[in-house]
């Protein structure tokens, strides 16, 4: 399934890698401000060499299909919308189904879910809502690695960063809901689909914090790799050198996965029109959890 390295290099220098980030509904919509993307997800991908295309919600399946064949990966960000019925969920399902089908046919299309995106992936894979309430809304934790070294995701991480990740609170958690480790291992679909790479514990429930799919380039973190380098509005976001390196290494891994397919826009004009550069983020730091967001 992996394309050869020499081809990858070729592509790195000659083409851009558009990776999509899903928009989601805003909490209080206004005219022309019905959906948003936190800018930290855009910066996260850009830091590792990708260019970003926003995926609007409420597009038709045909439009999602066309976009799918134009982009190299998709990221489902964190947030607060429904994973069972929302525009975010419908877009996530469209890309998930297309990615599974494409990967089955030998294509290599990566999907990444962060926080809500992680929970969305669990729902899409199992068809069930299996989450438990946990005391994890605003805390940085060290990862309890279960299979870190044997994973695709952490394989190339520097050993000292792995040590820091497992001993220092470098992963920021902002969620009320989690997938208990027990819930994953007692669900056939989830157990056979995802390798658990790390777990965490809120003192009461042990929950899954990082996964990768066994047979698909599908990845999820219940924690926020993008925040360490790019978000400052909460005191529990870690910014130490190891914390910031975590942001970068996670991004580098995922963008590396996106370099392994040949999806592209039919023309440069169409790509230019789709890129996030057409929108300006607004500064929201004083009143929100994000320094900057894009509004659509
Ligand atoms: C919404 O956007 C459209 C197209 O950009 C613009 O013509 C219209 O004035 C905007 N409406 C408001 C209320 O900002
Ligand atoms: C998406 O569609 C739903 C249902 O039709 C509607 O309520 C919502 O306002 C739409 N959101 C956007 C951002 O277009
Ligand atoms: C939740 O966790 C925090 C520490 O992160 C702790 O101070 C607090 O007492 C916990 N709350 C409950 C209800 O367990
Ligand atoms: C790490 O996970 C293992 C396996 O679930 C568990 O036995 C151990 O207690 C966990 N360690 C911490 C610090 O939570």
From TrEMBL:
Q: What is its main location?
A: secreted
Give the E.C. number(s). 3.4.19.9
**Which EC main class describes this enzyme?**
hydrolase
Give the residue range of the signal peptide.
1-23
Q: Keywords of this protein's UniProt record, alphabetized?
A: Hydrolase, Secreted, Signal
Q: From its record, what is one biological process in GO terms? A: tetrahydrofolylpolyglutamate metabolic process
A GO molecular function term, named singly, is:
gamma-glutamyl-peptidase activity
What SUPFAM superfamilies does its record include?
A: Class I glutamine amidotransferase-like
Q: What is this protein called?
A: folate gamma-glutamyl hydrolase
Upper classification of the organism = Eukaryota, Metazoa, Chordata, Craniata, Vertebrata
């Amino acid at each position: 399934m992996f394309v050869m390295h020499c081809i990858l290099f070729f592509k790195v220098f000659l083409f851009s890698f558009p990776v999509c980030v899903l928009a989601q509904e805003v909490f209080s919509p206004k005219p022309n401000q019905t959906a948003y993307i936190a800018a930290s997800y855009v910066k996260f991908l850009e830091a590792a060499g990708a260019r970003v295309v926003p995926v609007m919600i409420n597009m038709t399946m045909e439009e999602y299909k066309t976009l799918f064949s134009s982009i190299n990966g998709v990221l489902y960000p964190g947030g607060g919308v429904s994973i069972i019925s929302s525009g975010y969920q419908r877009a996530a399902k469209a890309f998930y189904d297309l990615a599974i089908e494409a990967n089955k046919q030998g294509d290599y299309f990566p999907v990444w879910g962060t926080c809500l995106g992680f929970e969305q992936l669990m729902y899409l894979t199992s068809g069930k809502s299996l989450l438990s309430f946990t005391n994890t809304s605003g805390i940085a934790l060290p990862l309890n690695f279960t299979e870190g070294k044997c994973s695709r995701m952490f394989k190339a991480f520097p050993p000292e960063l792995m040590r820091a990740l497992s001993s220092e609170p470098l992963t920021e958690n902002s969620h009320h809901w989690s997938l208990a480790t027990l819930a994953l291992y007692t669900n056939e679909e989830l157990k056979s689909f995802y390798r658990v790479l790390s777990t965490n514990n809120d003192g009461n429930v042990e929950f899954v914090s990082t996964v990768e799919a066994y047979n698909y380039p599908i990845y999820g973190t219940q924690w926020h790799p993008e925040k360490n380098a790019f978000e400052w509005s909460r005191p529990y976001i870690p910014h130490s050198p190891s914390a910031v390196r975590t942001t970068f290494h996670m991004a580098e891994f995922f963008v590396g996965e996106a370099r392994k397919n040949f999806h592209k826009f039919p023309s440069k004009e169409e790509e230019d029109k789709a890129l996030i550069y057409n929108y300006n983020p607004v500064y929201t730091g004083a009143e929100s959890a994000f320094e900057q967001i894009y509004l659509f």
